Automatic annotation (TrEMBL):
It comes from the Bacteria. This is Flagellin/flagellar hook associated protein. Residues 12-138 form the Flagellin N-terminal domain. It holds the Pfam family Flagellin_N. GO terms for cellular component: bacterial-type flagellum. Coiled coil: none annotated. It comes from Desulfocapsa sulfexigens (strain DSM 10523 / SB164P1). InterPro entries: Flagellin (IPR001492), Flagellin_N (IPR001029). One of its GO terms (molecular function) is structural molecule activity. Signal peptide: none annotated. Keywords: Cell projection, Cilium, Flagellum.
Amino acid sequence: MKATEGTTYRMLQSNLGRITTKLEDLRIQGATGTKVNQPSDDPSSIRPVLTTRTQIMHTDRYLETMGVTLDKMEATDGHLNHVENILQRVKEISVNSINGAMSQNDLDTFADEIANLKAELVDAANAQVDGKFIFAGYAENTIPFVENPNYNPNPPVDPLNLNPPYDAADSTTWPYLYMGTPNPTELEITPGERLQANLTGNDLFFGINNTTMLAGGPSPPAVYASDSGRIDIFSVLTRTEEALRAGNIDDPLGAGGGLVQNLENVDIAADQNRRLRSQLGNRARRVDSAMLHQTDVQIDLQQVLSRYLDADAIETFNAIVQQETAFQAALSITSKVSQISILDYF
């Protein structure tokens, strides 16, 4: 078959174009560090690359959410530690008041300290993280604990029962009211696995579990009592202060119910706080473990993505050198062919 001069030139042009395109692709790979910069580079890798990237995005979301939650858990633990210290000091004051020969002035001084400790307890119960109340359940923008305007430790006998006296079995008579919800926040740590990420104020400070309070329905609030073996911590401090101011050491029917009786309640309150703090700590450890697992998963996914996308630097450099050599050779051949003329044979 006879090759014309035009055919020869078209073949040389095509060869130069192919080499130039390949060299450009290699240079892009060297500059970006990836061997797949567009779908046509490796069509078979597009689906696994997109799938892996989606999985990495999900892992990033899990890690970000768990990181924020773990920070809140650590902040919550700090407040629970403060509550523990408050109750420890209340116990020390109660023991000293019961066992020591205290004057009423001394008891009043202790009562003032209890009042300050109660204010600290309220601050801890109404604590915020990132502008959200951490013990308010779903009502994160609502202050969870407010003073009960109808609380009266020593009310007169009211025939209409409009302002009943303090009753441990009636939460509407307690010194503080809970304005939050009994709905704990749940966190998804892996697909299909969720855990409680916070503590509700009713459970921690009132000793009323979430199931009981949810069964009570919406406002107006139902009448609740603390669960068996649990107690309203605010009442413990409030009534201890009342007993101190009245000098009531051991009369359960007197003001504040007596220091001796309240001392037992302080122990119940401390145990209640420690138990829920322990539960929160266990959940925090589970979140931390899940974060480590998700981090390992993310590393594995990055390795999978790397096998599809990342270009080997040495191989790419060698390929560029080889392709440049081929390009120079093609240019040399093309220049020599272009110098050939039929006139050279006459």
